[in-house]
Amino acid sequence: APAPAPAPAPAPATDAAPAAGTPPTGNETQAVTTQPVNDVPPADQQQEGGSLFDMLLPFILIAVIFYFLIIRPQKKQQKEMQERQDSLKEGDKVITAGGLYGIIREVMQDAVRLELAPNVVIKVDKRSIAANISKSGSPENKK
């Protein structure tokens, strides 16, 4: 019977890490192990319940702020202007947006006939009436 083969010789000490307590000489190689990082779940398993709400929350807040700072005051101003236009009647003293003072002589659907001086009557759009000064007094007294 043949003799058993001798066991392989151990690897030289320069390829392995130094023994505990011995300083490294610089010739040693270090073993590198790679392990998958399991901190982040796969994309198909991520929870998206709060992310959509978190993403939309700033837009919702901006829309609410936009409404209260811009849209609501503008609607209120339009409503007041419409009420002022609807309340115009013959004999009212008004001032136009162009600065013309006059007395309303005729009220039409979208316009008024405004008397600026005796025998000087012009047709003016209701939207150009800036103020009714017969109700509120002269603009100088408002200050």
UniProtKB/TrEMBL annotation:
Biased composition, Low complexity: where in the chain? 12-25
For biological process, the GO terms are:
protein transport
What keywords would UniProt list here? Cell membrane, Membrane, Protein transport, Translocation, Transmembrane, Transmembrane helix, Transport
Q: Any idea where this protein resides?
A: Cell membrane
Residues of the region (Disordered) are 1-48
Looking up SMART domains in the UniProt record yields:
YajC
Instruction: Give me the segments passing through the membrane.
Output: 52-71
Membrane topology type, per the record?
A: Single-pass membrane protein
> Which residue windows does the record flag with biased composition (Polar residues)?
26-37
What the entry lists under PANTHER family is as follows: SEC TRANSLOCON ACCESSORY COMPLEX SUBUNIT YAJC
**Name used for this protein in its record:** Sec translocon accessory complex subunit YajC
